[in-house]
Hints:
Blueprint: H1 2-30, H2 32-39, H3 45-59, H4 62-75, H5 80-93, H6 95-104, H7 111-125, H8 130-155, H9 163-170, H10 177-194, H11 197-209, H12 215-228, H13 230-237, H14 242-264, H15 266-279, H16 288-308, H17 312-322, H18 347-377, H19 382-412, H20 420-455, H21 462-487, H22 496-522, H23 527-558
Helix pairs in contact: 1-8, 2-18, 3-4, 3-5, 4-5, 4-13, 4-14, 4-18, 5-14, 5-16, 5-17, 6-11, 6-16, 7-8, 10-11, 10-12, 11-12, 12-14, 12-16, 13-14, 14-16, 14-17, 15-16, 18-19, 18-20, 18-21, 19-20, 20-23, 21-22, 21-23, 22-23
Amino acid sequence: MFISIITLLGALGMFLYGMNMMSAGLQKTAGDGLRKFVASMTSNPLKGVATGLGVTAVIQSSSATTVMVVSFVNAGILTLTQAIGVIMGANIGTTFTAWIIALFGFSADISILAVPLMAIGFIMSLSKKGRTRDISEIIVGFSLLFLGLSFMKNSVPDLQSTPEVLSFIQSWSGHGVWSVLLFIMVGTILTLVLQSSSATVALTLIILNMGWIQFDMAAAMVLGENIGTTITANLAAAVGNTNAKRAALAHTVFNVFGVIWAVCFFRYFLGLIHLIIDGIGLGNSTETPLYSISMLHTVFNLINTGILIWFIPVIEKIVRTAIKERKGGEAVPEKLVYINAGLISAPELALTEASKEVIHFGRVMQKDLEYIRLAVETSDSEDKFQPWRDKLVKYEEISDRIEYEVVSFLNKLNRENLSDSSSLLIKALYRIVGEMESLGDSGEAISRLITRGIDHGQKLSDEHKKHIGEMIVLVGRAYDATIYNLEHSTTITNIDNAVEAEVHINRMRDKLRDMELKEVENNGEAYFESVYYLDLVEDLEKMGDFIINISQAIMSLRKGKPGVSSWDDDDLA
C-alpha cells in the first residue's frame, strides 16, 4: 500500500509536470500572437468571455489565465468589467482538459504512444528553429501528462480486494444533500492542495472509473473543484491593488454562485447531463460516466456564464461593496503600477506588464525634465533652487528603484518558457530601463553642477537661461518621440521621429557652443561662467543620446537583433 501511495504521488507529479511543460510550449508557440490576442480585450462581455475561453484553451490553465487577468486589472490594462467576462470564459476553457483526459486517457492506452512521441519530441528539441523546439515541448509535455495519468490509474489501490475500505468510502454517499456537500468540500480541498483543477479532475475521473464512488458524488467533487481553483487568483491579488482583489473575488463569486444553484437543482442537473449524453450517442459505453463528468463540467460553466453574463454590473457592485477603496487613493506615479501584482504564471503574458511598466518609467523620467528647467530658472538663488535640487535627487533615486524592480521582475521570468521573440524583447527591455536610469542620473548630475556653480558664485545670464530653455524643449520633443515609439513598438517601421529630434538637439548644442566660444574670445573674464553654461548644455545633449538609444533598442528589436552599443553622433552623419 505504501509503495502504491508513493507511486501515485510520483505519477501525480509527472502529470502536473507534463501539464506545465505542455502549457509552456503552447505559450511559446503562440508567443506574440497570444499577447496581441489578450491586448485586444474590449468592454464587450461576450468578447471578454471568448478571450478568456481562447487563452485558457491555448495555455491549458485557467489558473494562469485568471492570475493574468488579476495582474492586468492591477496594472490598469483591464477594467473590472472586462476582467469578469474574461474570467467567465476561462472557466469554460478549462473544461477542455477534462475532455482530453476522458476521451484519450481511458478509452485507449495512449501511454503506448507516449514514449515514441517523446522520442519525436526529443529529436525536434535539437532543431535550431525556435518554433520547432517550442512544439517539441508540447509533444513531450503531452506525453508526460498521459504517462502520469497511466501511472496514476495503475497505482490507485484496487479497493475491490479490500471491500471493508470500499464500503467505508461508499458509506459517505447516500445521505442526500449532506453527501453532496461533503464531496464538494473534498473537491475543494484537493484543488487547494494541488493548486490545479486539471489534476483534481483527473483524480476524480480515475476514482470514478475504479468504482470508488458513484457518478453523483464525482459530480459533487467537480463542483468543489470549481471553488478550489479560485484560490490561485486570490493569492495573486493579495499583493495587488483594490481592483485586483475585486477581480479575484469576482471569480470566487462566480463559482460559488454556480455551485449554489447546482446543489439546489442537483438531481435535475444530473438528469440534464444524462439526457445530453444519451442525445449525442455517448450513453452506451463503459466510458459513459467519464464523458458525463466532462459534460457536467462544461455544461455547469456554460449555464453559469449564460446566467451571470447579464449580471456583470451586479457582480461588480457586490465586489466593490465587499472591498472598499483604500483611503487616499492608490495612484503613485513614481512607483510601479503595472507589475506590482507579482509574477504571473504565464511568462509570455507577463511581458505585457513589463512593457507597460517601461512606458510608465519613460513618462516618470520625462517629469524630471520639468524639474531641470525649474532648477535652471532658479539657479541664481540657493533658497529657490534647493526644492528643485531635492526633486532631482529624489527622481534619481526613483529611477534607480524602478530599474531595480523591473529588472528583478524580468529576472524571475522562466526563460525556458519564453519564445525566441520574447527572449529578444527581454534583452531590449534590459537595455531600455538602463538608459532610463541614466536619464535619472543626468538630472541629478545637472543639479550637482548648478550647486557647484552657486557655491563658486557663478551665475547664468538671462541669455544663457533662454538658450538652455530651448535645449530643454528639444529634449522634451525627443522624449515625446521615444515614448510614442515605445507605445507603438510592435507597429513602427522606423524611428525617424526620434532621429530627427536627436539631430535638432545636436545642432542646437553645436550652435550654442560655437556662439559661446566666440563670446569667450571677446570677453575672457566670463570664461568660468561660459564653462559652467556649456557643461549644462553638454549634459542636456547627453540626455538626448540616452533617449535615442531607447528608440534604437526598439528598432533593433523589430529587426530581431537588440543591440547593446550606445548611440553615437556619427550615426547621424
